[in-house]
Specification:
Layout (H helix, E strand, L loop, with lengths): L2 H6 L2 H34 L7 H23 L14 H36 L11 H34 L1
Helix pairs in contact: 2-3, 3-5, 4-5
């Protein structure tokens, strides 16, 4: 068993995926419920829930970034893959290594910037205007999302690199 398979079968890997799934399910259910409450209050009871938009935005941040990182884990994120189909297997493998390397570098860079954003948020503790919810709650979803994307993309980069090197030898 190689190192990539060991990582993918590890408890930590499985734990990260389970946390993502739980956060995706929880934020999805929460968003649906809060939107139903919003519609019910607004159109049935002719009332409004003050600051509900702030809550929805924070939940949407969590849904978006957990969904994005899960897409990287699942390798189901949006991509254009028509041209690689016309290339040889070795060229496809090389292209895949280049794409995964680029993605890994960018995800790590964005995760690094998210750390700076969190540091700034902890220093100044900005809050939403209506309910005074700390902005750091939504910022943390960015850090967690890009951190997970970085982990997955680096592992997949190494997997593709090892596959390319193996294919190149044969």
């Amino acid at each position: 068993m190689n190192i990539i398979e060991t990582i993918k079968k590890s408890i930590i890997w499985k734990f990260l995926v389970q946390i993502q799934r739980w956060l995706l399910i929880a934020s999805s259910i929460f968003l649906v419920l809060i939107m139903c409450v919003e519609v019910l209050l607004r159109y049935v009871f002719k009332s409004d829930l003050f600051g509900i938009e702030e809550i929805v935005v924070i939940a949407a941040f969590w849904l978006y970034f957990m969904g994005s990182s899960y897409g990287v884990y699942d390798k189901s994120h949006v991509k254009a893959d028509i041209i690689p189909q016309m290339l040889s297997k070795k060229t496809q493998a090389l292209l895949s290594v280049i794409v995964r390397l680029t993605m890994s570098v960018l995800c790590c860079l964005f995760a690094y910037w998210a750390i700076d954003m969190i540091k700034h948020g902890l220093k100044y503790m900005p809050r939403t205007t209506g309910l005074g919810i700390p902005i750091i709650i939504s910022q943390f979803s960015i850090l967690l999302g890009y951190s997970l994307m970085s982990i997955y993309s680096v592992v997949y980069f190494l997997e593709d690199l090892f596959s390319f090197l193996k294919l190149r030898k044969s």
